[in-house]
Design brief:
The chain is α+β, with helices and mostly antiparallel strands and about 425 residues long. Helix content is about 20%, strand content about 20%. Strands 1, 2, 3, 4, 5, 11 and 12 form a seven-stranded mixed sheet that branches. β7 and β8 form a beta hairpin.
C-alpha cells in the first residue's frame, strides 16, 4: 500500500518542463571513420562522397533534433565536423530537405593515442591494440554531436582520462596463465589505463529553459581478445559508468577530466545515447551488461525503437539470426550472418520521468525506395542503423524519493 501511495503521489507531482516540447534524440554509428588521418576531411571537402551522402540523407529523412554520431574521426580544429554540415547536411540529398544544426561538439578520443605499454601482451609495444583505445591514429572512431538546441559549453564534462582501476569492483581482466587474480595488466599499466575506449561525454542541452544531460559514449566491442575477455569486461564497465553516473547513490567515485567528482543529482533530466556494443540476450557481451541501463530504476526503457526492416532481414539472412533470443524487431545493426548476426546494440535511453511518444530504427523494408540507404550496394551508410526516440520531459521533486520508488505511469507509451 505504501508503494502504491508513493506511486500515486509521484504521478501527481510530475509536471511538464516550462515551455517543454517533444524533442527527437538520436544515435547513429555512421562509420564515418577512415583508415588514415585526414582522409575524412578530404572526403568531406567536396559534396561528392557517396557514403557521406547516404549518411546525411538518412539524417535528413529522420530529422533528429539532437544526434550523436559514433565513428566520426576527430580532428582538433573541428574541420570534419563543419564540412559534414556544410557539404552534406545543408545540401538536399535525393530530394530530402536540408537540415541545419547550429550547435556542434566534438572532443578528443582515446582511440589511437599511444600508451607506451604492451596492453595486449603480445610482446611488442605499439600499434592500434596498445593505444588507450583501439585505433591506428589519434581520433579514429571518434564521436560528434549535432544539436538544434544550445549546448551549455560551461557545463560540459568529459571522462576520457578516468582510470579503470578507480571504479569500485571493476572487472579487471585476469591472466589465465598465472595464479594471481586480475593481473592481465601490470600495476604500472593500471596506473594509466583509461576505462573509456573513446570517451564519455556529459553535454548539457538547454531545452525549454531546462538542462537535459546528453550522455554519450561508444564502449569497445566485447570481442577481438582472448580467454581473459579484456574487451568484454571493459565493455561491461564502460556501460556501468553511465549506470552509476545517473545514480546519485553510486556515483561518488567518478571524476571528470577536470577532477570534479560525482554524477548527476536526483531528478536530473538526461538521455543516454550511443553504440553500446551490447545486445540484451545475443552476441558476445557479458550477460547483464546492457541490462545495467535497461533495468536501471533511473531509466525509461519503455517503447523501444523497432523496425519492420530488421524483422525482414533477420528472416532473409538466416544464419546466426535463427538462434537469437532477442526480438529481431529491435535489432539496430546488420552484422555478419555467420556470427554474431544482427543485434540490438544502439540505444537512446531517457531518464525515468519522461514520456516517449514515438521511436524507431531507420531500417526500411527491401520494397521501400529508401532501402538503398541500408542495402549492400552501392554504398550503404553503415552496418548500423540510425535509432531515434521522441521524448517529452517531466520533473519529479526529490521529496518523493528516488526514481526506484516512482514507478512512473509515463515510463512507456505508444508502441510497446
Amino acid at each position: 500500500m505504501l508503494r502504491l501511495l508513493t506511486v500515486a503521489l509521484a504521478a501527481l507531482a510530475l509536471a511538464p518542463v516550462a515551455g517543454a516540447e517533444t524533442v527527437r534524440f538520436s544515435t547513429f554509428n555512421a562509420s564515418l571513420n577512415r583508415s588514415t588521418a585526414g582522409q575524412l576531411i578530404a572526403d568531406l571537402s567536396t559534396p561528392a562522397n557517396q557514403q557521406a551522402r547516404n549518411v546525411a540523407e538518412t539524417i535528413q529523412r529522420v530529422r533528429p533534433d539532437v544526434i550523436l554520431i559514433n565513428e566520426f574521426d576527430y580532428d582538433a580544429a573541428g574541420t570534419a565536423l563543419k564540412l559534414f554540415q556544410d557539404n552534406y547536411l545543408s545540401i538536399s540529398q535525393n530530394g530530402a530537405a536540408p537540415i541545419h544544426y547550429p550547435h556542434r561538439f566534438a572532443a578528443e578520443s582515446n582511440t589511437g593515442i599511444p600508451s607506451g605499454f604492451d596492453f595486449n601482451n603480445n610482446g611488442v609495444v605499439g600499434g592500434p591494440d596498445d593505444a588507450y583505445g583501439f585505433g591506428f591514429y589519434p581520433g579514429q572512431f571518434g564521436m560528434a554531436v549535432y544539436s538544434r538546441y544550445p549546448i551549455d559549453q560551461t557545463g560540459i564534462r568529459t571522462f576520457q582520462r578516468f582510470l579503470w582501476k578507480d571504479m569500485p569492483g571493476a572487472l579487471l581482466p585476469d591472466d589465465p596463465a598465472t595464479p594471481a587474480p586480475m593481473d592481465w595488466y601490470s600495476p604500472a599499466e593500471l596506473d594509466v589505463f583509461r576505462l573509456s575506449s573513446k570517451s564519455h561525454w556529459d553535454l548539457p542541452i538547454v531545452i525549454g529553459g531546462k538542462t537535459v544531460h546528453f550522455l554519450t559514449s561508444h564502449p569497445t566491442p566485447p570481442v577481438f581478445d582472448g580467454p581473459e575477455d579484456r574487451n568484454g569486461k571493459r565493455n561491461f564497465d564502460e556501460i556501468r559508468l553511465w549506470a552509476d553516473y545517473i545514480n546519485p547513490f553510486r556515483s561518488g567515485y567518478i571524476y571528470d577530466d577536470t577532477g570534479r567528482q560525482g554524477g548527476l543529482g536526483l531528478g536530473s533530466l538526461f538521455v543516454i545515447a550511443g553504440d553500446q556494443n551490447s545486445d540484451p540476450l545475443d552476441g558476445d557481451s557479458i550477460p547483464g551488461a546492457i541490462q545495467q541501463l535497461l533495468e536501471s530504476p533511473f531509466v525509461n526503457s519503455g517503447n523501444p525503437p523497432a523496425s519492420l526492416g530488421a524483422v525482414e532481414q533477420s528472416a532473409l539472412q538466416g544464419g546466426a539470426n535463427r538462434n537469437h533470443k532477442s526480438d529481431p524487431q529491435f535489432d539496430t545493426a546488420d552484422f555478419p550472418d555467420s556470427a554474431p548476426g544482427n543485434l540490438r546494440v544502439d540505444y537512446v535511453l531517457p531518464s525515468r520521468a519522461t514520456l516517449i511518444t514515438d521511436s524507431g530504427v531507420f531500417w526500411p523494408l527491401s520494397s521501400d525506395p529508401l532501402f538503398r540507404l541500408v542495402g549492400t550496394f552501392p554504398f550503404p551508410a553503415s552496418d548500423h542503423r540510425l535509432v531515434w526516440s521522441d521524448v517529452t520531459f517531466f520533473f519529479a521533486p526529490a521529496v518523493f524519493g528516488p526514481p526506484a520508488l516512482l514507478g512512473s505511469p509515463f515510463a512507456s507509451s505508444g508502441r510497446g
